[in-house]
């Protein structure tokens, strides 16, 4: 069990950790074009989910897709910045790192679009018929 001074130190360290994480999230959405695009897509999916009254399981799937795409886009951004810092000139290994990271985002994005279509199309079609 921690005494009071250890608790204070632990809380200060935890606060710094959260501050750094929120700073990174803020940087991503303020400075990265893809961050803005992903945020807009996420907002659109959330609005559609409310409008179409999706189930709890469907909400979980949509939120997981949003989190996966945005998290991977953030990791991709971090890797790009790191690679550019380490090796400013073209290097085949850096290209592979950047391409694989971008591929991960694309893979998650395509999977998320398919998931969204599977969830939303059966709910939209009856509205179009009426």
From TrEMBL:
Cofactor: Mg(2+)
Superkingdom: Bacteria
Membrane topology: Multi-pass membrane protein
Keyword Heme: no
BP term (GO), one: phospholipid biosynthetic process
Binding site for substrate: 73
Residues at which ATP binds: 32, 80, 98-99
Binding-site residues, a divalent metal cation: 32, 80
Ranges annotated as spanning the membrane: 37-54, 60-79, 100-121
Cofactor binding notes: Mn(2+), Zn(2+), Cd(2+) and Co(2+) support activity to lesser extents.
Molecular function in Gene Ontology: ATP binding; kinase activity; metal ion binding
Keyword Transmembrane helix: yes
InterPro entries tied to this protein: DAGK (IPR000829), DAGK_sf (IPR036945), UDPK (IPR033717)
GO annotation, cellular component aspect: plasma membrane
Pfam families: DAGK_prokar
Coiled-coil stretches: none
Keywords: ATP-binding, Cell membrane, Kinase, Lipid biosynthesis, Lipid metabolism, Magnesium, Membrane, Metal-binding, Nucleotide-binding, Phospholipid biosynthesis, Phospholipid metabolism, Transferase, Transmembrane, Transmembrane helix
Annotated compartments: Cell membrane
Active-site residues, Swiss-Prot/TrEMBL: 73
Family according to the record: Belongs to the bacterial diacylglycerol kinase family.
Protein's name according to its UniProt entry: Undecaprenol kinase
UniProt source species: Parafilimonas terrae
Lineage: Bacteria, Pseudomonadati, Bacteroidota, Chitinophagia, Chitinophagales
């Amino acid at each position: 069990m921690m005494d009071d001074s250890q608790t204070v130190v632990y809380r200060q360290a935890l606060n710094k950790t959260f501050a750094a994480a929120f700073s990174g999230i803020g940087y991503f959405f303020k400075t990265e074009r893809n961050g803005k695009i992903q945020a807009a897509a996420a907002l659109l999916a959330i609005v559609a989910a409310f409008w179409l009254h999706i189930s709890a399981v469907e909400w979980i799937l949509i939120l997981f897709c949003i989190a996966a795409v945005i998290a991977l886009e953030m990791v991709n951004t971090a890797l790009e910045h790191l690679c550019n810092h380490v090796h400013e000139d073209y290097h085949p290994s850096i290209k592979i790192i950047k391409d694989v990271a971008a591929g991960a985002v694309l893979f998650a994005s395509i999977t998320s679009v398919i998931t969204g279509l599977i969830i939303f199309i059966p709910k939209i079609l009856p509205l179009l018929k009426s």
